[in-house]
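Need tokens for this chain, all 117 residues.
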Amino acid sequence: MNIEELRDYCLAKKGISEGFPFDDKTLVFKVMGKMFALTSIEGPFRINLKCDPEKAIGLRAEYPAVTPGYHMSKVHWNTVEMDGSVSDDLVREWVDDSYNLIAASLKKADREALKNL
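Here are the structure tokens for all 117 residues:
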């Protein structure tokens, strides 16, 4: 997976926006205004994704490419080094998990609006 494939995958989901809220290098994907994935458009290709805390620990133990979230809460976020050691299908699954965690945490009105898109 490359950054364009990641972008296409994220943008195909419901309620998605993308932008550069931090600087002109960090691409952020949000569902209904809440961040679920981010990556740098420069340097090594890495993705930060929200993750269930217990699952995050397990993924870090199993995959050397998965580390605690860079510049994020180390409990709730993982950074995935896109070095080819993790399959694209698994990365898509983790993107889905991140999206679903954020979508589930939305205010009721936003969850309803997302459901009706």
